[in-house]
Structure formats: structure tokens, C-alpha cells
């Protein structure tokens, strides 16, 4: 038997690595261009296949996690994504770069359906562990640009890929030595303490589908648009790109802490009790942000990020609570496939809406979209608590 705390610690490290690895290129491309003799606009498209694989690959990797072994799939994740990062550091041609970034996306697609299902299998308190896991993922997002910039400046862009790749493989070796394959189907799980009536499962599926599309689209749109929004609307406070980056990072810290808080609440209250009030946050804050600037905009942006990050934790907990152990990786695979597909579409949507009427039109449009989150929370049925949970 594996130690649950040890398994969850490795899975949390995997969440950090997953998001970190996917964003190295976005930070390194600025200094890669001159080194490879290519413009920024010429290099950036080579990341597209990797992001497509990141979402589409989850369907296959989730199926393998259920049908084969989640432990073995996570070992492949650590070693594979580490080797792929190292391979980027040795590319000589644009074609090799595209292939290496595609490999990162393929191995990165393993984590969410498989790693999240492992969290559910080993968690004693599901909400708390989901919240902590979300914080680790956000740390990966937040630190990628900073660490890549520092390594790239002092050791070169190739080292920015090679060094984290080596560290990731070392973590994979430790994982292989300390975590064994284990059948968790008959084990006591926190996820098994809450159920809904079979006749109400269609409401769970419909609610999840609606909220994943609405929140994934909005979440990605906000993360893409926030730096530009701050650059335009905080001009009276600062024109320093570095300070704007610090402000954006501080805003995201509130989002990470929200995930932890929502996770703790999900351990104490039913999912609907937490989801319903949370669903009312995004639409009004997005609508208000359309007409604000300077400090009021920063405060409202904190509300937007808190609402979006909190909803992500609710979505993951919903799948964990209401799916059986033998189907859980596949359920997460579908959830993330839909979510990442919607998130990918949001980039083009942001550009189009901004062209039509600037940030006012864009923020009003996403505020309207987030009304669907309220509908999804209302649709969600009440839980039937088991005697074990009581």
C-alpha cells in the first residue's frame, strides 16, 4: 500500500511541472528569436500543436489511466515531459522545435485526467486536497515566466528548458521508487461519501457541461487579457511593465488562496451550497471592470480572479464526488477535453471582441456568458449524504 500523503505530494509536484512546462516557451521565445534568426511572430505558431495535444490527448491518457495504471501513466508523465523539455534545449531547426513542443503537449496531457483522479482516490478530505493541488498548479503558472527569464538571462534559453527537464526526470525516478501500482477500487474514499439520486444524474452532467464551457472560456480569456487591460487602464498609476507584472501576479495570488478556501468549504458543506453563491461573483465583477481603471480596477480584478479560480475547484470536485473509481480518469479526460477546447477558442474570441469595441465590449460579453454559471449551480441537485459521511 502507498502512503496517501506521499502519493498526493508527488501528484501536486506534477501539477506544478505540468503548467510550468507548458509556459516555458511563452517566456523563452522572446530571447529565442534572435538566437534562431526568426521573428517573434514566426516562432510563436510552433507552440500551437503542443497546446492542441495538451487538450486532445487527455481523452486517450484518461482512458489508459483507468484501463491500465494511473501510477504507470504518471511515471510516463514525469520521465516523458522531462525528456521533452531537455530535447527543446537541443533543437537546431524550426521543425525540430515544433516536434519537441508537441511532445511536451502530449506528455502534459497525461496529468489532469490521471493526476486529478489519483488525488480523489487517495484524499481523506477531498475539498482540501483539491484546493492545495490547485495552488500548486497556479504556482507553476506564476513561476514559469520568472524562472525562465532568470535562467535565460544568465545561462541562455537552452538551459531554461534543460535544467527543469533534468529536475523533472529526477522527480520521476523518486516517484518510481516510492510509489507502487495499487488497485484503489475497494478502498475507502472521501469521494464516496456524497452521491445524488440516479434519476438526477442528468442534472449533474448538464450542470458540469454548462459551467465547464462558461468558466474555461472566461478563465482563459481573463488570463490572456489581464496584462493588456492593466497596461491600458493603470496608466495613471504606473507605466512600468515590471510593476504591472507584479500587480498582475499579486492579483493571481488571491485566486490561488481562493482555491484553497473553496476546497476547505467543500469538505464542510455540500457542493451545491458552495457553488451557488460562488456562481454570482463573476458576472457583476466582469461587468463593473468594463468601466473602471486604476485602483478600483485592481480590486474588481481580484474579485474576477477569485470567482474564476474558485469555480475551477468546484468543477474538479464535482467530477471527483460523482464518478466511480473505475471511470474517474475517463470522466476527468472528458471534462478537461471540453474545458481546454473552450479555453483555446477564447483567445480568438478575445481578439475579435476587442476589435469590435475594446475591453468594454469584451468584458460585457464574458459577463453575459458567466450568467450560465448561475444557471448551472441552480440545476445542480442536492446531495444524498451516506451514513459514513454523517
From TrEMBL:
Record field: transmembrane: 20-40, 46-65, 72-91, 97-123, 135-155, 161-180, 201-222, 242-262, 269-289, 295-314, 334-354, 360-380
InterPro entries (alphabetical): MFS (IPR011701), MFS_dom (IPR020846), MFS_trans_sf (IPR036259), MFS_Transporters (IPR050171)
Protein name, as recorded: MFS family permease
Superkingdom as given in the UniProt entry: Bacteria
Location of the Major facilitator superfamily (MFS) profile domain: 7-385
Entries under PROSITE patterns matching the protein: MFS
Keyword Transport: yes
Pfam family, one: MFS_1
Protein's cellular compartments: Cell membrane
Keywords per UniProt: Cell membrane, Membrane, Transmembrane, Transmembrane helix, Transport
Membrane topology, from the record: Multi-pass membrane protein
Amino acid at each position: 500500500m502507498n502512503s496517501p500523503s506521499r502519493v498526493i505530494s508527488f501528484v501536486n509536484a506534477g501539477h506544478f511541472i505540468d503548467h510550468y512546462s507548458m509556459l516555458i516557451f511563452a517566456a523563452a521565445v522572446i530571447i529565442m528569436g534572435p538566437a534562431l534568426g526568426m521573428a517573434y511572430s514566426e516562432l510563436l505558431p510552433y507552440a500551437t500543436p503542443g497546446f492542441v495535444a495538451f487538450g486532445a490527448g487527455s481523452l486517450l491518457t484518461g482512458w489508459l489511466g483507468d484501463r491500465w495504471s494511473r501510477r504507470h501513466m504518471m511515471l510516463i508523465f514525469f520521465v516523458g515531459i522531462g525528456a521533452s523539455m531537455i530535447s527543446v534545449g537541443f533543437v537546431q531547426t524550426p521543425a525540430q522545435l515544433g516536434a519537441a513542443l508537441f511532445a511536451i503537449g502530449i506528455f502534459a496531457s497525461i496529468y489532469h485526467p490521471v493526476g486529478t483522479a489519483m488525488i480523489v482516490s487517495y484524499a481523506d478530505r477531498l475539498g482540501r486536497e483539491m484546493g492545495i493541488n490547485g495552488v500548486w498548479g497556479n504556482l507553476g503558472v506564476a513561476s514559469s515566466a520568472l524562472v525562465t527569464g532568470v535562467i535565460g538571462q544568465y545561462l541562455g534559453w537552452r538551459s531554461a528548458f534543460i535544467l527543469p527537464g533534468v529536475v523533472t526526470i529526477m522527480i520521476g525516478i523518486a516517484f518510481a521508487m516510492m510509489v507502487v501500482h495499487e488497485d484503489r477500487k475497494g478502498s475507502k474514499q472521501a469521494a464516496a461519501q456524497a452521491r445524488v439520486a440516479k434519476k438526477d444524474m442528468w442534472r449533474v452532467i448538464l450542470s458540469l457541461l454548462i459551467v465547464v464551457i462558461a468558466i474555461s472560456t472566461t478563465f482563459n480569456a481573463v488570463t490572456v487579457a489581464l496584462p493588456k487591460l492593466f497596461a491600458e487602464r493603470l496608466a495613471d498609476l504606473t507605466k512600468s511593465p515590471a510593476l504591472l507584472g507584479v500587480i498582475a501576479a499579486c492579483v493571481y495570488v488571491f485566486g490561488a488562496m481562493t482555491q484553497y478556501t473553496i476546497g476547505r468549504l467543500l469538505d464542510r458543506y455540500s457542493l451545491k451550497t458552495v457553488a451557488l453563491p460562488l456562481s454570482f461573483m463573476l458576472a457583476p465583477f466582469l461587468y463593473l471592470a468594463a468601466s473602471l481603471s486604476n485602483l478600483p480596477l485592481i480590486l474588481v480584478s481580484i474579485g474576477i480572479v477569485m470567482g474564476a479560480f474558485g469555480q475551477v475547484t468546484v468543477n474538479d470536485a464535482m467530477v471527483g464526488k460523482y464518478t466511480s473509481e473505475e471511470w474517474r480518469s475517463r470522466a476527468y479526460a472528458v471534462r478537461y477535453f471540453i474545458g481546454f477546447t473552450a479555453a483555446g477558442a477564447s483567445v480568438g474570441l478575445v481578439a475579435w471582441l476587442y476589435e469590435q469595441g475594446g475591453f468594454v465590449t469584451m468584458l460585457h460579453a464574458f459577463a453575459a456568458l458567466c450568467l450560465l454559471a448561475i444557471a448551472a449551480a441552480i440545476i445542480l441537485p442536492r446531495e444524498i449524504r451516506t451514513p459514513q459521511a454523517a
